[in-house]
Structures are given as structure tokens and as C-alpha cells.
Amino acid sequence: MVAKHIKSLLYEHDCVIIPGFGGLITRYVPAMVHPVKHTIAPPSKRVAFNEKLILTDGLLINTIAYHNGISTGEAQQMVAAFVTQANNQLKTDNRFELSDIGVFRYNAAHRLEFEYKEGDNLLEASFGLPEISARPVRAEESVVLRTLQKNREQDVPQQGNKFKRRLRRVYSTAAGLVIAGLTGSALYMLSIQTEYNLSSLNPIALFTNATINNQAAASDYTSDYVPVSEEERLAIYQNLLLNANAATSDDVAFAISETDNSEINLQAESDTLAEVAETAVNEVVVEEPVVEPVLTVSERTGRFYIITGGYSRLKNAETGREAIRENGHDGKVLTPLKGSRLFRVSAADFATAEEAQAAMNEYRKTYGNSIWVLNN
């Protein structure tokens, strides 16, 4: 059961520590082309072992406790029993196999060695990508293919091309007949309408109708009509102007007084606006400093941090931090302490251990039971 949890954690984390035994570290391996098998392998993870990483970071124990519904103490006993079994098997058989991961052995200097066993692809980005076989291309194959294609083209009978030409000619003739029939039908339908005259489409008729209308307008007056002379028209206009001036003199005086008052009001409003503008220009704008959030902690602060995971590479740790900040929490990256190579990611920090422990239940709802508290 412990081996199964170790394998599942290697999919998501770069380092999984087995307390009292050592740490399994993964590294990225790009896609590879096998020169002999002629295959292309997708990107993957390769696992290495470091027997000096024996101090627990709580990841394996908390994961076992969470998935099995047991306490942390019981999970710690399960891990200790697993380590005891592995050490006993190494002493008796000089070999211990971690299923689907690798084999442990003692060398001549009685140092523990690890041999990675290539099995399932542990890289989540390559999930479902198979190994592709690529057959080498030979130069003579292109000549053979061209010869076969040429022979096939010669074997095709020419009757097919003649039939296509005849069919295309029939289609063109039928299309022309259909268009001519539709045009004739449209003209016939217009001609049988009593309220529509086809002669109105003639552009020359526009000029003819205009001439006829002008002649009709010229003959609108009767034979006994006598036009008004120019002197009589001027006398009528002068009488109208005198009456209009007498009626509107009082209105003009009132309008002038209104104009003077409006000019005084506009001058007062412009002076007020000028004073406000001058006051706004003389004011000094004080900009408040922008406080940037602390994203990386490189020194000891004495605070208590809720840790969600540990990474062997800074890039992966920063990715985990951004995911935490997207959830609305104060995600930070803690650089490795003395004697450690793990970059730890925290979701929150507190001044005392009691405050951190009190907030653990709330953060477990989002990040599970694998989180723990670290005094940095």
C-alpha cells in the first residue's frame, strides 16, 4: 500500500521522501529518437534516489492518512513497517524492488544503489502518448513510386475524359435554356399587368414628359389675367415694412437689455471658473507608494507557515505558488533551508504556532490533509 502511494505522489511531485530510508527525485527527460529501433518516445520523468534525504517533510505520511482515513500516527507506523521490511529484504537478498519504480541494491562498499525501472510514464503532460515507430525512408522508394504512378495513369482509359466533356456541354446548354425561359416568363408577367406600362422603361420618355409638363404649367393662367407691375409691388413692400418696424421697436429694446444682463452673468461665471482652475493647478498631487506583495521568502522570519508541498526546482514551486494565489490565498515560496534542497510552497503564515494550527482545518478543505506547519 505504501509503494502504491509513493508511485501516485511521483506523478504530482518532484521529490517524495521515505522517512528513515531516503528520497526519490524525478527529473524531466525530453522526447527521444531510438536509432536502432527506429522509434520516437514521448517526454517522460526519470527517477533517482538520494539516501541522505531521510528527514520527513510530512508529504507521504499525510497522504496515506488522508486516503485511508486513519490518523497521522497510524500512517507513520505503516511507513516505518515498510522501511523495516525493505531493510530486512536488503540484508537477506541484497535486493529490494519497489513495484513499477525501480530496484535497490548494496554495492561493494555497502552503499545503497538504485536502478530505475522504466515502466509507466510518470509525466502527466505525456499521459496517453504512445511510442511511435518510424520506418526509415529509402532513396530508391521514390523512384519506384513514381514508376507505379506513371503506369497507372497510362492504364486509365480516355473514354472517361470524353464523357466528362460531353456532360459539361449538356449542362451548359441546359443552363442557358433555363435562364432564357425565366427571362421570357418574367417579361410576359409584367406585360399582362394593367397598372404597369413597359414603355416607362424608355429613358427618352423622361425628357418628353418634362417638356409636356412645362408647356402645361405655362398655360395655367386664364386669357384675362393681368400681371402686377414692378412699381406696385415695391409700394406694397414699403407699407409692410413700416408696420413691422412700429410693432417690434419695444421688443428690440427689451432684447438689448436682456443681452446686457446675460453678458454680465457670463463674465462673472468665467471669472469663477478661472479661479477654480488656478486653484486646481496650484494643488500638489501626492502619490501613495505601491506596496508589492512578498512572493519569495529567502531568510528566516520566525513565522509559522502552512506548507502545501515541496519541490526540487524553483520553477515548479513558482507554478504551485501561482495556483495558490489564484485560489485567493497568500502563496509564497520558501527557499531551501540549511541541509535541504527543497523549495517549499506556503498558503498562509502566522505569528504563532497556535494561530497556524487553528487555521489548518480551514486550509485542509482546499489542499487536503497533506499540509503541515513549518517554523521558518
UniProtKB/TrEMBL annotation:
KW Kinase (keyword) present: no
Name the domain of life. Bacteria
SUPFAM superfamilies, per database record: IHF-like DNA-binding proteins, Sporulation related repeat
Which InterPro entries does this one have?
HU-CCDC81_bac_1, HU-CCDC81_bac_2, IHF-like_DNA-bd_dom_sf, SPOR-like_dom, SPOR-like_sf
Q: Which UniProt keywords apply?
A: DNA-binding, Membrane, Transmembrane, Transmembrane helix
Pfam family of the protein (one): SPOR
- UniProt domain SPOR: residue ranges: 298-376
Which residues are listed as membrane-spanning?
170-190
Name of the protein this chain belongs to: SPOR domain-containing protein
Question: What is the scientific name of the source organism?
Answer: Pontibacter populi
